[in-house]
Amino acid sequence: MNRSGNQHGRAFGRFVLFVLLVAFVAAAGWFWRDFNRFAVTPLRVSATGESIDIGRGTSFKDIVHQLRAEGLTTSAPFYWRLLAERMHVAGRLHAGEYAVTPSITPEQLLDNMAQGKVMQRNVTIVDGWTFRDVLQSLSKADKLKHDTDGLDDAAIMQKLGAPGEKPEGRFLPETYAYVKGDSDLDVLRRAHEAMTKTLASLWAQRDPNVPLHSPYDALILASIIEKETGRADERSRVAGVFVRRLQKNMLLQTDPTVIYGMGSSYTGNIHKSDLTTDTPYNTYTRPGLPPTPIAMPGKPAIEAALHPAPGDALYFVARGDGTHIFASTLDEQNRNVACYQLKHCK
After folding, report:
1. What residue numbers bound the domain in which 309 lies?
2. Considering the entire predicted model, what is its pTM?
3. For a designed S-S bond to 191, which of 27, 166, 171, 211 qualifies (C-beta 3.0 to 4.6 A apart)?
4. Residue 264 carries which DSSP code?
5. In angstroms, rounded to a whole number, what is the distance separating the alpha carbons of residues 135 and 217?
């Protein structure tokens, strides 16, 4: 009787142990599947453009707490710790601002943090903008520190390591990436360095016959070309007109320089009296190039200034459709003005 009872007890114990083992394996399997599902399931991101900002010295525990507080995850902190340990990144997450897109997973976010792939934003300097336009755009750039506030042009150039330089034309039109913590001076410094290198490279490859005495002269002429036409097929022809006028000691007579010299008094229209009102930038009253660039020229405009198209045209006038018609004599120019500006075509 006792032997039978013992055998029965041992059998029941083995059964209970088996049940517990099966339950454990099932629970472990469920946990592992749930953990792996967590690792590759996108976070709870409600809209594009969201980010999480991790401060310096933030612990892993606090990072997870921040993710939960901002509603990006409801998963247990233990899952995040286990994932970080599996990825070998728990102790090497970098501070910074990180993008959280609607498709980003916990694995991807931790990988970005481990590699320091902080969120980048872009700001663009547009061909033909003035320095005022550039500063205004930078002042509106999201998460960019505004260290130029309260500084005049001379102070800005001093901080950029270019004391004595006039800022107009000195910054290469291009798209520049930045991260949170960068300042407008950082962007300006990069754009200034880019223009300096670009201008030096293009100057070294210039047509030796261009009547320009320095890279700065090329920058000034390029800025005028930039304001006169945005068409790639016309830049070198416009450059050719201005170069030939310089060679013949003719006045450049270009409206964009007059407008620049008018400053805030320009209201959108240029009048005949404006052409006769002398300023340092009025190329109807003063010979040669104006004293500084009048805008930020792009690389194509600089190339055109240094490689003008050959020909005999000395004049051009806008057709009204974005293109220009060129003329080699004043009589021909007057006829073109009458036709395309005054609509008195014959």
Report:
1. 210-340
2. 0.84
3. 171
4. G
5. 24
